[in-house]
Specification:
By secondary structure, the protein is α+β, with helices and mostly antiparallel strands. It is built from seven helices and six strands; from the N terminus they run βαββαααβαββαα. The strands form two sheets. Strands 1-2-3 form a three-stranded mixed beta sheet. A three-stranded antiparallel beta sheet has the order 4-6-5, covered by helices on one side.
Length: 223
């Protein structure tokens, strides 16, 4: 039992949202940071511990005073307080986010809104000639990766700066062997905001003189 039954999963951005919003999973122990699925303040880390988490076996094992989960747990059980100055504003923000999550209709409603956001984004980008990196059958409504424009005048740095100046932040592509960029579909936004983002990208393409978004082979395949 003990440590063999301890599972800690660090769920950053996409994963925390996917498990919380798109799926219903149970883990013996889960760790999440910056869970945008509940639209709470970033850099909040919370631990979900199942009955198989044997706290007694964790006593004295931590090499960090601040991150000693056993010490924090036992202190909270005894005093109902944090060991150090509590992050009251962060806790209030998280509590408010959870209230909004419930008021919206919980996981089904939140997932449905993110799905509508994704559909609006992909449809609008398709009109501009952009192709998602992933097939629609496996695309989650969290963040969408698009192939970068094939035009030689395209520069992600300039593209990013111009779209940012219009009020929208893009993400550079990661973990792909071709040039891509990413657009998020999550947060306290709806399809209208996604369409505004598409409009900002359309205007940026015009400003940069980019006319060839898809490669010739991709354009022929789409046709």
């Amino acid at each position: 039992m003990g440590l063999a039954l301890l599972v800690i999963v660090w769920l950053i951005t996409f994963l925390s949202t996917y498990f919380f919003i798109a799926k219903t999973w149970w883990l013996p122990a889960g760790m999440s940071a910056a869970a945008p699925g509940i639209d709470h303040q970033f850099f909040v880390t919370f631990i979900l511990m199942g009955v198989v988490f044997v706290l007694a076996q964790c006593a004295g094992r931590s090499t960090s005073l601040a991150l000693d989960l056993h010490d924090q747990w036992t202190y909270m059980e005894k005093t109902t307080q944090w060991r150090f100055t509590p992050p009251t504003h962060v806790v209030v923000a998280l509590a408010t986010a959870l209230e909004q999550f419930a008021a919206e209709g919980g996981q089904p409603a939140r997932h449905a809104r993110y799905a509508r956001n994704c559909e609006a984004l992909v449809a609008g980008m398709a009109e501009l000639g952009f192709r998602p990196f992933l097939d629609a059958s496996i695309q989650a409504p969290i963040i969408v990766t698009f192939h970068a424009p094939a035009d030689t005048r395209y520069s992600f740095r300039e593209f990013y700066d111009r779209v940012r100046d219009k009020g929208f932040i893009l993400y550079p592509g990661k973990l792909t062997q071709v040039e891509t960029f990413r657009v998020g579909c999550i947060g306290a936004i709806g399809p209208d905001e996604m369409r505004h983002a598409v409009n900002a990208i359309r205007d940026t393409l015009s400003e940069m003189g980019i006319h060839q978004v898809a490669s010739p082979s991709a354009a022929r395949a789409a046709a």
